Amino acid sequence: VIRTFSKAYGLAGLRIGYGFCAPDLARRLWTMQLPFGIGLTGLVAAAACYRAEDELRQRIRTISVERRRLRTRLSAMGVYSTDARANFVYLPGGANGRRGWPAVFEGTGVRVRAYADGGVRITVGTEQSTRAVLSAVAAAMV
């Protein structure tokens, strides 16, 4: 079992995570560890996360609500997005005959992760960021 602090805890830039496994596998994995492991900043941030359970639950609720709202509104616009339980929504490339989603978001201030197939992964965040995504998509559909 592997878990990350990237999504709900909001620590993607620190590359913090943990895993549970059989002792023999743990020994083998330990030999593959990169030198200098986790820095002090990452350790302090991870420890602080465990003391912030209320904030974590609120962040998860916000992400769930905004993800549902984003997918519902995109669907109403005729835009397909994959169903996920993560903090992002994926718009597959080639949808609706578009030249690719990266072009839709270019110059809008909305940052997306573009893929070779023309699809994009959009991180779900605040109500304001959801509005920005929907505005960019609506403008491209005119």
Any overview of this molecule?
The protein has 5 helices and 5 strands, in the order ββαααβαββα. With 142 residues, it is of the alpha+beta class. The chain has 2 domains: 2-51, no CATH class; 56-140, Alpha-Beta Complex (Aspartate Aminotransferase, domain 1). Strands 3-5-4 form a 3-stranded antiparallel beta sheet, with helices on one face. Strands 1-2 form a two-stranded antiparallel ribbon. β4 (113-114) and β5 (120-123) form a beta hairpin. The relative contact order is 0.12.
List the helices and strands and how they pair.
Layout: E1 2-4, E2 17-19, H1 23-31, H2 40-50, H3 53-76, E3 88-91, H4 101-105, E4 113-114, E5 120-123, H5 127-140
Helix pairs in contact: 3-5
Give helix % range: 40-55%
Strand and helix order = EEHHHEHEEH
Q: What structural class do helix, strand and pairing data support?
A: alpha+beta
Q: List the domain count as a whole number.
A: 2
Global morphology: elongated
Major beta-sheet overview: 3 strands, antiparallel
Distance between the termini: 46 Å
Tell me, rounded to a whole number, the average pLDDT: 89
Number of helices: 5
Counting DSSP E segments of at least 2 residues, the number of strands comes to: 5
Percentage of residues in DSSP E strands: 5-15%
Q: Class of the largest domain, according to the CATH hierarchy? A: Alpha Beta
Task: State the CATH topology of the largest domain.
Answer: Aspartate Aminotransferase, domain 1
- Radius of gyration (Å): 18 Å
Task: Give unreliable regions as ranges.
Answer: none
Determine the CATH superfamily of the largest domain.
Aspartate Aminotransferase, domain 1
Provide the spatial order of strands within the biggest beta sheet: 3-5-4
Tell me what the CATH architecture of the largest domain is: Alpha-Beta Complex
